[in-house]
Amino acid sequence: MIVQHAMLRIREGASDGFEAALRDAIPLIALSPGYRGIEVRPAAETVGFYLLRIFWDDIASHRDGFRKSDRYDQVRDLLLPFYEPWPEVSYFGAPIIDSGVIAE
User: Fold this and answer.
1) Is 57 helix (H, G, I), strand (E, B) or coil?
2) What are the start-end ranges of the H helices in the chain?
3) Mean pLDDT value of segment 47-76
4) Domain of residue 88, CATH code
């Protein structure tokens, strides 16, 4: 399993709209083969800043599957108006340290 990671910066005053659009986008992402789950957390001290983590079987599930699908275009259309700037995406492999902490 890999983790897709991005830090999302949202246009000032648009957090509520972004969160609503994200709720519409998640089911489209979840239909993708290789999708395992998603986590989006708002920053504790910065309005309009979010941590995105999407869990995939492998990088190809995201990059060659979801990103080349019609659903990607729909998700991009839903979320693009909120990003400032467009987020950079990174992929991470298995943990080298896992303390067993379970996030709520």
Assistant:
1) coil
2) 15-30, 59-60, 70-79
3) 97
4) 3.30.70.100
Alpha carbon 88 to chain centroid distance? 11
Q: What is the pTM of this model?
A: 0.91
Residue 22 domain flag: yes
Is residue 97 assigned to a domain?
no
> What domain range includes position 68?
2-92
pLDDT at 79: 97
**pLDDT score recorded for residue 52:** 98
Retrieve residue 6's tokens.
Answer: 């991005």
- Residue 100 maps to a domain: no
Nearest alpha carbon to residue 19 among 87, 79, 76: 79
Mapped onto helix, strand or coil, the DSSP state of residue 88 is coil
